From TrEMBL:
Keyword DNA-binding: yes
Pfam families, sorted: TetR_N
Sorted UniProt keywords: DNA-binding
Protein name: TetR/AcrR family transcriptional regulator
Domain HTH tetR-type: 5-65
Species of origin: Actinomycetospora rhizophila
DNA-binding region: 28-47
Gene3D superfamilies, alphabetized: Tetracycline Repressor, domain 2
InterPro entries, per the entry: Homeodomain-like_sf, HTH_TetR
Superkingdom in the source lineage: Bacteria
Length: 188
């Protein structure tokens, strides 16, 4: 790794830690640069623009998200993986990352398709859908019913997450997710 890329990676990690703590809202180069021991000019040089920095931070955030996908994707049926995803999402140590994801997702949905947020939400949905599809039978996976089953599970998890972030009512939402997952369990 060259000195420039090592410094770029170092600043990206520092900026990512800052964004995890402070969120995307109101992110300005000057306070960010000051907080991470850099300058706006250095950030602009290394990332090309503020949009370039945001894209790099979104990619860094997505890398964490994909690591979660890998971690929860080990074996089991759709209900089992859904339970592991929910347990991870609902765990208090992960609140900063899920809040950052939610902010990025919201920006992406509101974006007109041209900014640094473009496509972030759609890629997120595709990543999670692929994980869930891996836990359906081959016969079900490629059917309209299988796609609908995955979409509903993802909607339930995302909705429960939004409510959890808004209310902190873990018991109610754990019960709601468990009720939905129970309907996905194979019946004998």
């Amino acid at each position: 790794m060259s000195e420039g890329s090592a410094r770029q990676q170092e600043l990206l990690e520092a900026a990512y830690a800052w964004v995890l703590d402070h969120g995307w809202a109101g992110m300005s180069l000057r306070p960010l640069a000051e907080a991470i021991g850099s300058s706006p000019r250095v950030l602009l040089f290394l990332f090309g623009s503020k949009d370039g920095l945001v894209r790099a931070l979104l990619a860094r955030s997505r890398a964490d998200q994909l690591a979660v996908v890998d971690a929860v994707g080990e074996g089991g049926d759709l209900a089992a993986v859904g339970a592991r995803v929910w347990a991870w999402l609902a765990a208090p140590p992960h609140r900063a990352l899920v809040r950052l994801w939610l902010e990025g997702y919201t920006h992406s949905v509101a974006d007109d398709g041209a900014g640094p947020w473009a496509g972030f939400a759609a890629r997120t949905v595709a990543d999670w859908d692929a994980l869930l599809a891996d836990h359906q039978s081959a016969a079900r996976r490629d059917t309209a019913a299988g796609a609908a089953e995955r979409a509903l599970l993802l909607a339930v998890l995302r909705g429960a997450l939004l409510d959890l972030l808004a209310t902190g009512d873990t018991a109610r939402l754990d019960a709601a997710v468990a009720a939905h997952l129970d309907g996905l369990r194979p019946r004998e």
